[in-house]
Amino acid sequence: MTPPDFPPDDDDRPGGGLSGRSGDDGAGRGSGEDDDDCGVPEPIAPHATKGPERLPRDFSGKVPLFPLPGCVFFPHTLLPLHVFEPRYRAMTRDALGLEAWDEPGGPVRAGRRGERLIAMARLREGFDTELTHGEDSVTESDRSPIHDTVCIGKIVAEQELPDGRFHIVLRGVVRAAVKSERVTEAGYRLAAVAPLPDCCGPRPDLDRPARTKQITDRFVGLFPDVDLPDVLARAFGRCVTPGMVCDVVASVLQLSPDESQELLDQTDPDVRTDVVLRHLRRHLVKAGFKTGRTGMADPQWN
């Protein structure tokens, strides 16, 4: 879709304008527990938080969009990026709150408060890139349509190169719906978004801990050298939820962009466990296991 124009604002840059609080919704936490109560380990990167990432409580509601073809980014996972296009260099500088860069003269104006957030958006089929007509920036009429659901990531590590390019690492925070957007003066797209926290439907008969164990067992069947429970515990402590497990597993499986987008669109973690288990079963059968019902089955290579 191509959302309607972004509402007028005196400041195009993330960190200003729309007000609001993400509260626990941005984290999908909802329990009100402090990080220390979850027994979470130390941060995994210089600017990561302990345990799952959460939106800042004073989140502006605006976030830069980074649209890419075939790229589906999940909460609670890591995504390394090499940022080289001028508009996306400007986007990264604004997200980090750095001075603007006026090539070849260097920094020209002070940066404002950056929220360190970027939303990864998957371009709709048939659109391999933004329609820039050979220019560095995209115009309002050139915006390529994106899928409805995006993933907001936090820049947890960054390296600025001498020529203005960046190496950054995003850590997924939360799903979000794009409500409206506009093109900034720097040429990148800025969106007003609504976070989409996980929300379980009524399934009183579902044993969620057992379902989570099913997923981890089947994952270990495919990747016996990876101790998934230990990886999750070291990253998130006792804050691990079935939805988080699904997101991490989905990011590792070689799913098609459409299959990944289906999981990103789904905010009910119980439904996500159904879908992820189906994908794991298919991968196990393809790998030669008898039934795909357990990650501990003997492989059949004939």
From TrEMBL:
InterPro entries in UniProt: Lon_prtase_N (IPR003111), Lon_prtase_N_sf (IPR046336), PUA-like_sf (IPR015947)
Annotated Lon N-terminal domain residues: 63-284
Gene3D superfamilies: 1.20.58.1480, LON domain-like
Domain of life: Bacteria
Xref: PROSITE patterns: LON_N (PS51787)
Disordered: region residues: 1-56
EC number(s) from the headed UniProt entry: 3.4.21.53
Protein name in UniProt: Lon protease 2
Organism: Alienimonas californiensis
Lineage start: Bacteria, Pseudomonadati, Planctomycetota, Planctomycetia, Planctomycetales
